[in-house]
Amino acid sequence: MTPAEMLSRELTEKVDALRAADKPFAFATIVRTVGSTAAKPGAKALLAEDGTILEGWLGGGCARGAVKRAALTAFRTAEPQLISVTPEEFLAELGVEAGTQHGGVTYARNGCPSKGTVDIFIEPSLPLPELVVMGASPVAKALCSLAAQFQFAIRAVEADVDLLPTSRQRYVVIATQGQGDIVAFNAALASGPSLISFVGSSRKFAALSQKLMDAGADPAAVRSVKAPAGLNINAVTPDEIALSILAELVKQRRAARAEV
């Protein structure tokens, strides 16, 4: 059972609306309490992308600052967070300071008179990175089929598609193979993606890039295009080329997370 299935209908509707709008959110669940606390294990809240509580309840205001900080960390790193909001004297007994992490737990000070401890698990839900595959070539079809298993939101489009800006990560693979290459590049460059890859030889891209810059394309953006697309695995068949491209995309996505 997923967290959304354990929430009320109102909360589930809010989750669905956030997903439809490609907005990040997080579930916060109290998993353990010690001493006197307002909220008990099992209490849940839905957190917005700024870390504030949209719906639900986690007790009084003593834990809100720690929850917000942990939620922002979860969104930035795409990793769940476990926080323990603990009275200062208990932190001293444990030999940890507020703000430090030990054993996978981030500790925060609870200054409330109740002197209780609340452990809260925060699980982020981020929009899947978008993979836009331009063209209907065999490589394009193989890439769409293979990438579906690797947590990408896939869009298979024609070369003349209008790519609207998006807040999520976007990777564009141009696999038009001579059928509207320039049109596809103009659409891809205008959308400001995290990466543009071109399925074609470096010689062919050199000719296309000159045409693009002569027509007014930003030289820096053109030079940032990865051509030929994919890691060098001596790929020959469309499936092998698609595999090399997907490996490069996964490497790029993981590198982006490691930088935060």
- Unreliable parts: 1-5
**What's the count of strands?**
11
How large a portion of the residues is in β-strands, by DSSP E? 15-25%
Counted by DSSP, the helix tally is 8
Rg, Å, rounded: 24 Å
Shape: elongated
Q: Helical content, roughly?
A: 25-40%
Q: What is the residue-mean pLDDT, rounded to a whole number?
A: 90
Strand order of the largest sheet: 3-2-1-7-4-6-5
Largest sheet: 7 strands, mixed
Instruction: State the end-to-end distance.
Output: 31 Å
Structural class: alpha/beta
H/E element sequence:
HEEEHEHEEEEHEEHEHHH
Structure overview:
This protein is of the alpha/beta class and 260 residues long. Helices cover 35% and strands 23% of the residues. The strands form two sheets. It has a seven-stranded mixed β-sheet with strand order 3-2-1-7-4-6-5, with helices on both faces. Strands 9-8-10-11 form a four-stranded parallel β-sheet, with helices on both faces. Strand 5 (101-102) and strand 6 form a beta hairpin. The longest helix has 21 residues, at 238-258. It is elongated, with a radius of gyration of 24 Å.
In short:
The chain is 35% helix and 23% strand. It is α/β, with parallel strands linked by helices and 260 residues long.
Detail the topology: elements first, then pairings.
Layout: H1 9-20, E1 25-34, E2 44-47, E3 53-56, H2 64-77, E4 81-87, H3 88-94, E5 101-102, E6 105-110, E7 117-125, E8 130-134, H4 138-147, E9 153-157, E10 170-174, H5 181-190, E11 195-198, H6 202-214, H7 219-223, H8 238-258
Parallel strand pairs: 4-6, 8-9, 8-10, 10-11
Antiparallel strand pairs: 1-2, 1-7, 2-3, 4-7, 5-6
Helix pairs in contact: 4-8
